[in-house]
């Protein structure tokens, strides 16, 4: 009976003619600085017209609530963003708490990244700084000071195996993180300080990268290396040691898993705008599309053809490319294989979004 009522409720909600998924860095922000007035004015316009939108970013390393709080403060929105409107690169990993218990979480700052994994429900979260505390000579050039180790690390039993390696964000100590991750992947059943005898494509423990962005916009004149550079490093070192390609899993854009997750969030946002809170606290299943699409036309707005535009195109969404981030005029001439936006290239997010809203007669 409840199922029937729920189905009637869903069908009673008129579909939204349009919705948006925004990248953050290079679209709304440049590092810690908002792209004003375009970012604030665009989101305010969508809120005024009750158009559902989600922030879909390959960034991470902090809780969703912390990121949203920072954005609200930076953008000075009259109507603050809700935590439910953001999908960080590692947000879908919250679905894995029932599969892995003791996880090595790499990248991001301490203690924020540990807090993220703990907030998802992982039972034991190990950080590289914990391992350095127990085995100071695991890498000869660690950057951590004694004060940082004392304040930010936790005791860890290195005799116990690690279940999985999660890369939540860009490494802050590339050398140490690289050594520890390779040690875990080539260990005997996940026990650090051991080395298995046979090389294989399948690592001793699974490794999941939250994104594969090689470059990202930081405000520097040219893009900087991102987590994708760390992944390339890990894969090449693993290949050299095992004579085999590493089997790994990658989330984030441009992979479909992030878009299905965002599509579920967009559905929930549209329901909230219509006074329906059903599913507001539910976690979307990995890779599972919503049973019904409540947003008829979704636009992915991004600055990176290799992640935002490629992923949006492949998922069947419309795509808007802006010139305030990674993409620079002339890139398609230099790199002909780059994914091109379906709706167009615009100087900024405001021009792209207002053009789409006019297309659907919203404004």
Automatic annotation (TrEMBL):
One of its GO terms (biological process) is glycerophospholipid biosynthetic process. InterPro entries: CDP-alcohol_PTase-I, HAD-like_sf, HAD-SF_hydro_IIA, HAD-SF_hydro_IIA_CECR5, HAD_sf. This is TIGR01456 family HAD hydrolase. GO terms for cellular component: mitochondrion. It comes from Pichia kudriavzevii.
């Amino acid at each position: 009976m409840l199922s029937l009522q729920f189905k009637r409720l869903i069908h009673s909600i008129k579909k939204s003619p349009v919705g948006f998924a925004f990248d953050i860095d290079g679209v709304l922000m440049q590092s810690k600085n908002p792209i004003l007035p375009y970012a604030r004015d665009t989101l305010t316009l969508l809120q005024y017209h009750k158009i559902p939108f989600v922030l879909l970013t390959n960034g991470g390393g902090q809780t969703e609530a912390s990121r949203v709080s920072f954005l609200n403060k930076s953008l000075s929105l009259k109507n603050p963003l809700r935590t439910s409107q953001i999908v960080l690169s590692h947000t879908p990993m919250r679905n894995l708490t029932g599969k892995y218990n003791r996880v090595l979480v790499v990248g991001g700052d301490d203690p924020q990244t540990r807090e993220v994994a703990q907030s998802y429900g992982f039972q034991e979260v190990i950080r590289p700084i914990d391992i350095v505390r127990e085995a100071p000579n695991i890498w000869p050039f660690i950057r951590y000071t004694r004060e940082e180790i004392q304040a930010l690390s936790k005791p860890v039993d290195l005799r116990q195996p690690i279940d999985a390696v999660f890369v939540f964000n860009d490494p802050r100590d590339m050398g140490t993180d690289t050594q520890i991750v390779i040690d875990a992947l080539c260990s005997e059943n996940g026990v650090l300080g051991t080395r298995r005898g046979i090389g294989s494509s399948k690592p001793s423990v699974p490794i999941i990268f939250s994104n594969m962005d090689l470059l990202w916009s930081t405000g520097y004149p040219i893009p900087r290396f991102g987590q994708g550079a760390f992944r390339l490093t890990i894969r090449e070192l693993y290949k050299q040691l095992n004579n085999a390609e590493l089997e790994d899993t990658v989330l984030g854009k441009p992979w479909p898993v992030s878009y299905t997750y965002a599509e579920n969030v967009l559905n929930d946002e549209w329901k909230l705008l219509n006074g329906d809170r059903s599913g507001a606290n539910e976690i979307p299943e990995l890779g599972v599309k919503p049973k019904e699409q409540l947003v008829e036309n979704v636009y992915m707005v991004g600055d990176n053809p290799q992640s935002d535009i490629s992923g949006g195109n492949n998922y069947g969404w419309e795509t808007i490319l802006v010139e305030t981030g990674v993409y620079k005029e002339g890139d398609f001439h230099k790199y002909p294989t780059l994914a091109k936006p379906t709706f167009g290239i615009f100087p900024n997010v405001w021009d792209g979004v207002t053009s789409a809203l006019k297309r659907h007669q919203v404004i």
